[in-house]
Specification:
Blueprint: H1 2-8, E1 14-20, H2 28-39, E2 43-47, H3 58-69, H4 74-87, E3 92-95, H5 98-104, H6 106-115, E4 120-122, H7 132-140, E5 144-145, E6 148-149, H8 155-164, E7 169-172, H9 188-198, E8 203-206, H10 212-219, E9 224-227, H11 229-237, H12 241-261
Parallel strand pairs: 1-2, 1-9, 2-3, 3-4, 4-5, 6-7, 7-8, 8-9
Helix pairs in contact: 2-4, 2-12, 5-6, 6-7, 8-9, 10-12, 11-12
């Protein structure tokens, strides 16, 4: 968790970049991860693909399907995290669904993430009432089980979520899927404000942020901004590896500059 703490204690807003492990193919994913970090990503979020990604929009669902067909697994994602860690010192967080983690085993997952040099994990479909066993294994190894909140999360539950979580609070910008456009005057801003008043965890917002302008606006109300689908789209539309790297470099650079201004 110390690398995450260092990011948020640096006195500026953070950019968190999501990439699907194994997409567009194993090997290229590592190159894109390094490109994102070098272009300004403060935290790398690696998604381990799953066949039923209930919170993901069409772009990330498609990326997960491609990655699965190319043989990417949770174990493979841990190997990718270890490969990136050998080359860069940015915090690495895994994001994915509870089923693969449960089948690997909570202890084995936490051990594997710690050995890979990871810093935490986000499991969107693991409610806090069921998360204690995994949280314990993670904390025992200095890893963060990062909590999530939505625009309609009641204040009392928000306080409990913040009290039990580690790393940072992931605030979902809307009741929708990744890649959907956030609504005007989104309720997440009130949730973010309440969470920042609690001042235990940094607050990062994600879902639907696509451009530098949107990132700068989101950063006004949060400690960090999370972007995934917009970067996945760049990779999907690129005609080859080098063009994908160029596109990721350009967009991440734009987002990083915008977030710093936020």
């Amino acid at each position: 968790m110390h690398r995450l703490a260092q990011v948020f204690s640096a006195g500026r807003k953070a950019l968190i970049v999501y990439l699907t492990a194994g997409y567009p193919e194993p090997g290229v994913d590592g190159d894109l991860a390094l490109e994102a970090i070098d272009a300004g990503a403060d935290v790398l979020e690696l998604g381990f693909p799953f066949s039923d990604p209930v919170a993901d929009g069409p772009l990330i669902q498609e990326a997960s399907g491609v990655a699965l067909r190319k043989g990417m697994t949770l174990s493979g994602t841990l190997q990718l995290a270890a490969w990136v860690r050998e080359r860069r010192q940015a915090p690495i967080v895994l994001m994915g669904y509870a089923n693969p983690v449960y089948h690997m085993g909570y202890e084995a997952f936490a051990d594997g993430l710690a050995r890979a040099g990871g810093d935490g994990a986000i499991i969107p479909d693991l409610p806090m009432e069921a998360a204690a066993p995994l949280r314990t294994e993670m904390r025992d190894r200095g890893l963060a089980l990062i909590p999530m909140a939505a625009p309609n999360t009641p204040a009392s539950r928000l306080r409990t979520i913040i009290g039990q979580g580690d790393g940072f609070l992931y605030v979902v910008s809307m009741a929708g899927l990744t890649g959907d456009a956030p609504g005007k005057g989104a309720g997440w801003q009130k949730v973010a404000s309440l969470a920042r008043e609690a001042s235990r965890l940094p607050v990062c917002v994600g879902f639907g942020i696509r451009t530098g302008r949107e990132a700068a606006e989101a950063a006004r109300h949060a400690d960090g901004v999370i972007v995934g689908s917009a970067i996945t789209r760049i990779i999907r539309e690129a005609p080859g590896r080098e063009r994908a790297r160029e596109g990721v470099r350009r967009l991440v650079g734009e987002l990083a500059e915008a977030v710093r201004r936020g």
